[in-house]
Amino acid sequence: MAQRPLAAAAAWKTKPSWALVAGADEAINPEVERFGAKRAGATIVEIEGASHAVAVSQPKEVADLIRDAVRATS
User: What is the pLDDT of residues 34-62, one digit of tens each?
Assistant: First the structure.
């Protein structure tokens, strides 16, 4: 049996999206994160000095970003 796509089209093409760039991420180069986010037309939020585990190291900033995204789309 072939694997089917989850959706007919990617949601980021028609819905607002946000991207969080961890400025000190050593697992994923922040420049690569920025490139993908720009390509998707996302609102980019960068946290300087944040590691790859940004939700652990910067929980308030991550929560603020989520709240801002919810407010912008509600």
Answer: 999 999 999 999 999 999 999 999 999 99
Residue 65 forms part of a structural domain: yes
In a domain, residue 51? The reply is yes
Model's pTM, two decimal places? 0.79
- Spell out a b/e string for 34-71, using b for 16 or more CB atoms within 10 Å of the CB, else e: eeebeeeebebbebeebeeebeeebeebbeebeeebee
Strands (E), 1-48: 18-22, 43-47
Domain coverage including residue 25: 16-73
The runs of H, that is alpha helices, within 1-74 are 30-39, 54-57, 59-73
Task: Count up the domains in the chain and report the number.
Answer: 1
Residue of 17, 62, 20, 64 whose CA lies nearest to 42 = 17
